Amino acid sequence: MSAGKGGARHFAKPFIDPGILFRVLHDHKELVQSMGIYDTISKNQALDPQGLVKMLQLLRALAKVEPTMEVHTGAMRQGLNSLLTEDPAINTTKFNGSVWVSLRQERLTTLLAHFRRLKTDGELRKCAQKLTAAEFLYLQEVVDKTTEKDPCQKEGLGKRKLKKEISDVSLDEDGFPKCFSSPSKVQLPTKSKKKRKVKKGTKKTLSKGSMPLPKGSSAETLPKGSSAETLPKGKSRPFKSFLRRRPAQTLQPCSSTWQEDDHLKGAMGFKRQAAAATSLAKGTTSLAKGSKKKKSEAASGSKPPWVKLRVTRATNPERTYIVGTRDATPGAKLQLIVEVSKKRSTKHLSIINEIYKELESKSITKEEAIAMRERLCEP
Fold first, then answer.
1. Which tens digits make up the pLDDT trace of 202-219?
2. Do residues 313 and 302 lie in contact, with contact meaning Cβ atoms separated by under 8 Å?
């Protein structure tokens, strides 16, 4: 199937010669102009037997041209255009010529689709209930002239069949098929053990309990107390490192008391008692110093002065408030100290002036300023 023809079960409709189709439509242009009930029926709706009988002459002519009752839309559109060009009076609608051709082409496609159901879906028996005997026989005569489209034989496609080939069965020595024989034991390849060459003057075997010699070294080259020496029964030489080293590379001495490392204990939270005691002592001394400073400040009774004081009078709602800060650094943010609204007291401006004098002269705190406001606002 070539590309652009649809899916596996969708095939291109036959293209009828537009001249032949024009002759058929011209001979039955009254039916093309007014198709009765098929001017309003959709393709998805049920077929109408009375409407098919009315269009039976047109259907009989189309069955002679194409027995499958499938017409390509392009050929149908060309035939209708030729019919409209020859007789423009056939278009009695309010639409122009191109729209009328599209509408007639859609109606004819619906008519052919419903007529194909009589052959493929077995709808002919249902038509017998709504037609007279003569009408049913006329309809059956046209249906018998049509043929059902075979998608396998259309466009030269034959039915796919598997190629029959007789294969010879292989037999074993006893005459039985080899497919029924049990699988033979296959020996897996084993690794070949190569014997290592031992230099002259070296010992081939070591004593029991000793460590193997490094590659390229001998017992004579090793110092005393090395792995070549024997150890007492039941004892093994301590393991120094799990890393593989080159023969000439020396091993770093491993500390056996790594648990006693102060840094590791400090990171894990296990400090020595002495270190904990010293840190506790330092903490107590720092606390004592801080408490002494607070006591000295409380004893002196001095308060830090207000560096910046601003009196602001707002109108919405009408109120007066004081902002300031004790921080002498440039750009310090001013904070609200006290506020008096007109709703609370009509003399809010004079009350704020008195509080401002106390803040400037005696450097009273914010709490004292709020208490002074409460006292002055009382009626």
1. 545 544 444 555 555 454
2. no
